[in-house]
Amino acid sequence: MSPFTWIPLLFNLFTLLSSPQPTLSVDPFVSKAQIPSYFLNLAKSPEVFEYMVRIRRALHEIPELGFEEFETSKLIRNELDQMGIPYKFPIAVTGVVGYIGSGNPPFVAIRADMDALAMQEAVEWEHKSRVPGKMHACGHDAHVAMLLGAAKILQEHHRDLDLEGTVVLVFQPAEEGGGGAKKMRDAGILENVDAIFGLHVSSRFPLGAVAARSGPVLAASGFFQVIVSGKGGHAAIPQHTIDPILASSNIIVSLQQLVSREADPLDSQVITIGKFVGGHAFNVIPDYVTMGGTFRAFTMESFMQLKHRIEQVVTLQAAVHQCNASVDFSPDEKPFYPVTANDKELHRHFQKVAGDMLGSANIKDFRPTMGAEDFSFFAEAIPGYFYYVGMLNETEGALASGHSPFFKVNEAALPYGAALQASLAAAYLLEHHSSVKTNKKSSHDEL
Ligand SMILES: [Zn+2]
Ligand SMILES: [Zn+2]
Question: Which residue numbers belong to the known binding site for Mn(2+)?
Answer without folding.
Answer: 138, 140, 176, 200, 403
